[in-house]
Amino acid sequence: MVIKVFLASSSGSTAIKKKQQDVVGFLEALKIDYAQLDIASNEDNRLWMRENVPGEKKPTTGIPLPPQIFNEEMYCGDYDTFFDAKEDNTVYEFLGLTPPPGSKEAQQAEHSQKLHNGSGTEEHLGDDTTRKAAEEEEQEEGEEDKVEDNHLVSEAEDDLVSEEEEELRELEEEEEHASEED
Question: What's the whole-model pTM score?
Answer without folding.
Answer: 0.61
